[in-house]
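My main concern about presentation is that the manuscript never shows what a single data entry looks like. Each protein is reduced to its one-letter sequence and a matching series of backbone shape codes. For the editor and my fellow referees, an illustration may be useful. For illustration, here is how one protein appears when written out as sequence plus structure tokens:
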Amino acid sequence: MEMNFYIFFLAALVPLVIGFVWYGPLFGNAWMKEMGFTKESLAGQNMALTFMLSYIFSLFIALFLLPATIHQMGVYSTLAEEPGFTESAGDAFTYFQNFIANYGDRFRTFKHGAFHGILSGVFLALPILSIIAMFERKSVKYVAINTGYWIVTLAIMGGLICQFGM
């Protein structure tokens, strides 16, 4: 099973691209209002550092989405510590090779990855953002804008990783 590492670097660009549109022309004014920001208050921020760190954190998310979207990773991680497996030898490795030959293409579509990305958005991002928002006394609109962004972003990232990750 060969990993396509390039897809992680591509998928990590998705939050930046979607964010440019989401927090720009689509919901930028509403988001700024909910945050209490103005264009002037946002000026002067070190955007190069912000984008660089955002990209690095987006790589973390892309790596998280690999086992979340590709079910065959569960078999791999179950067998990885078996004797000889990392040396491409032994019964576990032979079993894994046969498993991948027979079932390696199952559920390996953009649609399936997007589905798991949406699930990650609804069952991970939504609760996290909602909990934070409650303590920060942010509005439902704030949660909707940010959760919507993450659901769309994770769907696209999940789709790319599931389709092209391995």
Q: What stands out?
A: Residues 6-70+107-164 form one domain. The chain has a mean pLDDT of 95. The CA atoms of residues 15 and 153 lie 6 Å apart.
